Amino acid sequence: MKLRCAWKHVFWVSVLVGAMATSGLGQGPPEVSWKAYADDSTAQSLAFSPDGDILASGSYRRVIFWRASDGGLIHDFGDQRALPKVAFSPEGSVFASTALDVIRLWDLSDFSLIRSMSADFASGIWSIAFSPDGTLLAAGGGIYTRDKEVRLFRVSDGELLRSFNAASGAVVTDFSPDGSLLVCGSGVAGDIRVFQLSDGSLIRTLATEHSVTGVAFSPSDADVLASCGADSQVRVWRISDGSLIRAMPVPNIPTHVDFSPDGTLLIAGSYRYITILRTADGSVDRTYDEFRGEPFVWSTIFSPDDLHFAYSTGHNGKIFLARKQNPGDCQPAITLSLACKPTNNVIVAKLTGVEIGQTVTVNASCDGSKEATANDRGKARAKFKNVKVAGCEITVTGCPDLADSCP
After folding, report:
1. Which of 203, 206, 278, 346 would be a feasible disulfide site paired with 341, CB 3.0-4.6 Å?
2. What domains does the chain contain, in order, with CATH numbers?
3. Residue 295: exposed, middle, or buried by beta-carbon count in 10 A (0-12, 13-18, 19+)?
4. Do the Cβ atoms of 143 and 171 come closer than 8 Å?
5. Do 206 and 191 contact (CB within 8 A), yes or no?
């Protein structure tokens, strides 16, 4: 959940060129529960509170709390200066936001400021992350300017405990779920460095050869790390030996990567696509596109209850909460039409908008159930023979609003 793009000027050119080669991918837009407007710029940073009740956004100057249930405004922290990053402590009592090179800690009970801490980064803070026990806060940044670009602070008193050598800037950071490791990804050097928190030692360097735009530890396995970068790949690594488990291509340059709460899925946003990948085998679970009128997808994160995901789109300040679809769920783009042939005792159910390669179950009240698999155009069909056509109702499993009957 820690993405900050350090190479944004290069990003614009790369993502627009890549867009020309990726039209036609995906199965339509996600099922949006609500949308809100942060301001007139990109909400680069999103974070859910641990209980899932609050969605925080950090855009060009503003930090805002939204009610996750309906998108209502809870609190506006006002002008926080350029590109604030946001994060909740794991126990949910403290909230962190940034303003240039300053970190601010807030008491969530009354939104009062607890303290401010200077990270002393000449080019600002690009990422923040709490340790799993909430006692530490890491901040990464300082592109090009220094060789020690990750700061580790104690939350209780704001003391700077250690600085880590993160090559040419730590634009993304995360802690392992057991709290023993800190990882940082470079937006310039294209490497990922893994540090031992107990002594600050560098235990592993993972080379990607491309700018790193996102890193995230698996919540269920401290030895598994995901990253994404400027080569339009999402990678899964094994920390213990530094091996690459798999690389998964996504449309355009992904700007963020996040694990689902159970660690079985990864979500990545890139230009006008959101891709959800299965971690077990690297296959695509879903690809959403057709973000009508939206400039590009920026930040993407799963909700703590694993029922939704949030995403933001660039340069218009829009934030969305969408329903996370699970296997067997109805896909919002599906349409159903019937070809009723009473003289032949045949009904053909035709479906469009089905995810490519996905199998759905079509039910006929006058017969039984049949499975239909979508072709490469998202179309599927089920044929029922030797049936009483008149009055036969056709439904699709998991889609309660999708039904039709023959006259």
Report:
1. 346
2. 8-323 (2.130.10.10), 335-405 (2.60.40)
3. middle
4. yes
5. yes
